[in-house]
Amino acid sequence: MLSSGTSSGSSGTDDPSAKAQAYRALIADVYELAAVSRRISEADAAARGVTVAQWHVLSVLSGGDATVPDIASRLGLTRQAVQRVAGELVQAGLAARHGNPEHARSSLYRATEAGLGRLEQLVADTDAPRAEAVSAVSLDELRTARNALRAVLTGLGGG
Fold it and tell me: What is the pLDDT of residues 62-109, one digit of tens each?
């Protein structure tokens, strides 16, 4: 159960004030989790010759072709930042740029076999340590937490 650290005097699930407080506490924890995860990912990526940004863009591209605006939206980054990273990936042979039949000025990017291989290696190298780091949390709890976050995201119009 989430605790906001404050008491509103009501524990009802429909109390808007209690829900808003719980939401704020959740968001604070999500930001903290993201910061810790980012620091771990930065070290993991650097040890394997890529940046976290490259890792994240490759992750998006592993799902299929995408434009810079699509990638930027998915990752919450600026288009300029994604354009720079996509260019780095193309230069390194980890991604390829090709024409977009839907929009002549917005190229599509695709992970190359080398890029997908690098991503698979990153995941293989980091899955066990990540699983160990969250060993105090059950698989069902992780899935429940993700479902709750997805529902919040959908409620906010992002999912």
Answer: 999 999 999 999 999 999 999 999 999 999 999 999 988 888 788 999
**Does residue 63 contact residue 74 with C-beta atoms inside 8 Å?**
no
Q: Supply the DSSP string of 19-72, one letter for each residue.
A: HHHHHHHHHHHHHHHHHHHHHHHHHHHHTTT--HHHHHHHHHHTTS-EEHHHHH
Closest CA to 57 of 84, 97, 87, 85: 85
Q: What is the DSSP letter of 94?
A: S
Looking at the DSSP assignment, which residues form a beta bridge with residue 97?
A: 109
Backbone angles phi, psi at 98, to 5 degrees: -145, 170
Tokens found for residue 76: 């919450």
> d(Cα 66, Cα 40) in Å, to the nearest integer?
26
Give me the CATH topology for the region 16-155: Arc Repressor Mutant, subunit A (1.10.10)
Q: Where are the domains of the chain?
A: 16-155
DSSP state of 134: T
pLDDT digits (tens, 9 = 90+) for 105-156: 889 999 999 999 999 999 999 999 999 999 999 999 999 999 999 999 999 9
